[in-house]
Amino acid sequence: MFGWLLPQILACGAAKPASPSVVLVSLDTLRADRLGAYGNPDGLTPNLDRFARESVLFERAYTQATLTTPSHAALFTSRYPPEVFGQGKAAVLTASTPTLASVLGTYGYETAASVGGGELSPELGLDAGFGVYASTRGFDSLLHTVPPALGWLDQRDTTRPFFLFVHGYDAHSEYLKPTPYGYIQGDLGASGAGQDALRSGGGSSRVFDGLLLADGWPWQQVSSTWLRPRSPEARAELGALARGMQPAPVPFGDMDGAVLRHGYDGAVAYADTMFGLLMAALEERDVLDDSIVIVISDHGEQLGEDGIYFRYSGVDEATAHVVLMVRDPLGVGAGTRVPGLVDLVDLMPTVLEAVGATVPAGARGVSFGPALRSEPFPGRPFTFTVGGLSLRWASVATATGRLTYLGVPPGAAEAADFAATAQLPGPAFTVAEHTPDAERETLRSALVGVLRDVALPPGAVRGAPGPALSRELQQSLRDHGYFDVDEQ
Amino acid sequence: MSVLWLLVGCGGEWTTLHAVEPTLAKLDVDHDGRVTAGEYDRVTFSGPAFAKVDVDGDGALSSEELLTLVLHQDPQRFYQRPGQAQVVPPALPDPRTANVGWCVLESMRQEVLAANPGAVVPTADETWAAAQGGGPALLAMRDRLDAALVAEGLPVPPRR
């Protein structure tokens, strides 16, 4: 499908693999709308913008989960998150599902991943199918994950194609990055709740509804309430609880929010530089000449939308809209922008099609290869995303609307019937403001269809219980705001 | 970077310096082509002082100096929060480490010396000059170090 064959011919008989290699770069927590290539005028991402000019860019790509672990699980398996998680204290990818790495491995690819730990720690099962899975201790930057990836590239078998996955938490909280990135967008004042949130551990996760909550706040007491903070009752309940806490929360105003957003933008700029350095290292190794390079983000971030920061609840454009760009080694389609809807689950069928591999049965994704070949590509009729630490939110979006559901958990046998009969509008649904009234039932039908597809029979249990997480990983997750990791 | 990229209108190779140059331009708020101490101080709060970052002491931050700064600040550990133990920032390393070619040559040289401290090998300054020269100079230096490794019975890293 790509022009990758021509460099092989031009190489005049050098012993190169017969199939294109694939490099997949995941930039954690990167909102698509922060990139210049996606319309941001602030100049935060010159390296990613250059990459976009060399790539096919998908303007409306969506993640299947607004958290790192399930998002990558869906990406790697082309299955919806409720289908690929077992039981346990945290979401754990079940081992029985074919993954992008495992399928490519059967086609002779060497496979390796270098990830920033935390929500991609091997304990959570995302290592399935990789020949090598290097993980740092937790929530690390590309600064830490690129060197192991390059080390692996330098010693691999150059007669075989490879699949390399590189991941970094550069845009993830904590937002404040080293000089000069921390305040590259301006500091808006040296003190205040915004600066406290920016400079403290897990800061953005402690902002709720106009309040900055103190460190050490007992999240567990309110985690079930936090799952539905968009309801007025839940907000009132949580707000009353927050105001009664000691030390008392402090007001978090608009300027504080701007400070936090500037900090996030600095983190985005840092991620962009790290990405540029990765590309330079790949160039140095001639990888760009015969490899497909794909850049994604796994989810976005709430930066004050609806009074909420971080991404604990709900599914919306801020959290579900992600970066997706595909660079052909010969520049086929370079600079093309694709407006049709695509999901990250579509990536696995696309890559497998590109290398001539068979897509496993049960894959939810559909190849967007036609778009890469500049062929007609209408895109998906709708996208599907789950959210919340317990994946209890479910959302569908079309080109013009979004409907988000919180009721019987997706995956339960009763969920589809509940969603089909619940009042709309009503407490089980949040309808995005831009959604035409006439589209609500269309969205509901799409949602019910997916819930029916992913549901287990009554009483059935999906997968085996996952292993208990190590204390170190649990603490690392808590430190970064995943406060109810014990309650999954 | 394939020549074919030039045909499709995409410019230049991806290099480490290109990766940081836009950031340097953003720091140059008065657009005079120099990032001075004042412009640097505007965005730093716990990073090294300008005098330490301005390695060549010319009063302006260069792309190479910015790259060195970026590569040697750990985003997990650069900032001391209230109540945390004082962390002494490491001295800025040799700015030549930003040059990947030099790092390869230097690692080979060090490997030879580790096996045989008395081995006759190029100096670090010579490997640096070869890395800066690039092309034939770099390849010739690579040949010398390959031979030195072989002489010590050490494996030669694959060439790409």
Q: What is the CA-based Rg of chain B, rounded?
A: 20 Å
Structural class of chain A: alpha/beta
How much strand of chain B? under 5%
Number of DSSP helices of chain B? 8
CATH architecture of the largest domain in chain A: 3-Layer(aba) Sandwich
The CATH class of the largest domain in chain A, by name, is Alpha Beta
Please estimate the helix content of chain A.
25-40%
- Secondary structure tally, helices of chain A: 15
* CATH superfamily grouping of the largest domain in chain A: Alkaline Phosphatase, subunit A
Which chains make the largest contact? Answer: A-B, 49 and 43 residues
CATH architecture of the domain at 15-71 in chain B: Orthogonal Bundle
Main pleated-sheet profile of chain B: none
What are the SSEs and their pairings?
The complex is a heterodimer of chains A (488) and B (160).
Chain A: H1 5-10, E1 21-27, H2 46-53, E2 56-62, H3 68-77, H4 100-106, E3 110-115, E4 132-135, H5 142-155, E5 162-168, H6 193-199, E6 207-208, E7 211-212, H7 223-226, H8 232-243, E8 250-251, H9 254-284, E9 291-296, E10 302-303, E11 309-310, H10 317-320, E12 321-322, E13 324-327, E14 337-343, H11 347-354, H12 369-372, E15 383-387, E16 393-397, E17 402-406, H13 415-421, E18 429-431, H14 440-454, H15 471-479
Parallel strand pairs in A: 1-5, 1-9, 2-14, 3-4, 3-5
Antiparallel strand pairs in A: 2-12, 2-13, 6-7, 7-8, 9-13, 10-11, 15-16, 16-17, 17-18
Helix pairs in contact in A: 5-9, 6-9, 13-14
Chain B: H1 3-7, H2 16-27, H3 37-41, H4 50-53, H5 63-71, H6 100-115, H7 124-133, H8 135-151
Helix pairs in contact in B: 2-5, 6-7, 6-8, 7-8
